[in-house]
Amino acid sequence: MRKAPAITCVFLDIGGVLLTNGWDHHARKRAAMHFKLKWSEMEDQHHLTFDTYEEGKLTLEEYLSRVVFYQKRTFTRIQFKRFMFAQSKPYPDMIGMLTQLKVRYGLKIAVISNEARELNMYRIRKFKLDGLVDFFISSCFVHIRKPDVDIFRLALDIAQAPVRQIVYIDNTPMFVQIAEGLGIRSILHTNYRSTRAKLASLGIELNDSRNAGVRG
Q: Residues of CATH 3.40.50.1000 domain(s) within the chain?
């Protein structure tokens, strides 16, 4: 049986894989409770504008004007933005594993992510993702977003790696299916242990002696 080509490039999402989601419905609900906003009203406003926001066609200030500050509030924009950004937390085990795998195998790492510009830039800098990731195909930069298949095609064009030498990691089943439809081997990420095992099955695994301090 012919051996599968070696993996040379990893495509992955940020939210749910490297970090917590940046501004999902859980974060918005926490914000509504914290600032005593009407949750259903805030969600209605958000859903009318979030795709435009994530495609980089609205600034954060414009988004907040439509979703929160369309009427006078008892808190400031600075307070609300500080709360938004504070929702992002890292997954150190995933970041550590991919950092080690990149060094060990000389992998190219690419992000394919739906995120708005200001939050995306904050997360990249705060968690030093630019030290791990070679290029960011973020929706706010390229003005298309998953599930549009063109964002995956753009990533393939930029990576210039044979499709069978790429693996994609995402925690959203639909996005995994779209990548697989393009011939990209994909991993539906649920936790560190299972993703580590699936990567090892593709021939990219950690050196255990170097991974002694990484949580399982």
A: 9-20+91-201
- What is the DSSP secondary structure assignment for residue 29, as one 8-state letter? H
**Predicted TM-score (pTM) above 0.85:** yes
9-20+91-201 belongs to which homologous superfamily? HAD superfamily/HAD-like (3.40.50.1000)
CB 109 within 8 A of CB 98: yes
**H-helix or E-strand spanning residue 109:** strand 108-113
Q: Quick: pLDDT tens for 54-87.
A: 999 999 999 999 999 999 999 999 999 999 999 9
Q: CB-hemisphere CA count at 13 Å for 75?
A: 15
- In degrees, rounded to 5, the angle at the alpha carbon of residue 50 between the alpha carbons of residues 63 and 33 is 75
Cα separation, 175 vs 178, whole angstroms: 5
CATH topology of domain 25-86: DNA polymerase; domain 1 (1.10.150)
Share of the chain above pLDDT 90, in %: 92
